Amino acid sequence: MSQIVVVEDEPAIAELISINLRHAGHQVTLAATAEAARQEVDAMLPDLVVLDWMLPGQSGLALARFWRANARTRDLPIIMLTARGEEIDKVAGLDAGADDYLTKPFSTQELMARIRAVLRRKLPEALDDVVELAGLRIDPATHRISRGEVDLKMGPTEFRLLHFLMTHPERVHSRAQLLDRVWGDHVFIEERTVDVHVKRLREALSHAQCAGMVETVRGAGYRLTRHATLAPT
Ligand code: CA
Asked: Which of 122, 139, 183, 217 has the least CB density, counted as fewest CB within 10 Å?
């Protein structure tokens, strides 16, 4: 489940999009102006924004540029909507930092497919897809983790940490990055907290002989790897 802000001044279109997003399990916040959208994004830093180009006051294009120029929102996934179908507009939209671009009228199925594609590329931990790595399987929809026949139990923080690591395997994540992406960017917690939860995660994984998948990279952070030598379960 992900948090999505829909920026659209036409109530009928905004309502149609939000009904479909909610039906797909997303949390939706509506904003009818660029100003309202900025406030919502400031308050929650959503997983994705659906952004109409033509808004009263500041345009969606200018708003996309504003978010791209700010460190906190630089990577915010943005799908731009527009009634203008010109190629040059599409180029301008993508240049302003939109991740994808849809011309009105569009089918809601197409919008849903584009949203999933953008999230899968930029924010896979926001999706409920089952992820499997070296036999370790995590299902965010049912909150189950297993390896072979063994079901694993762990706390909610360890679950989110493992889900993030499994959707971004083989990469080294610093403690600060993990705090940002797993704990959220509004919390101020000591980096040492990450070590505590990694330790608990390894303890949970050890019941399925796969604690070795979580590697410590000295001076850099942590990495989940499929290449660890593991005992069979
Ligand atoms: Ca509009």
From this structure: 217
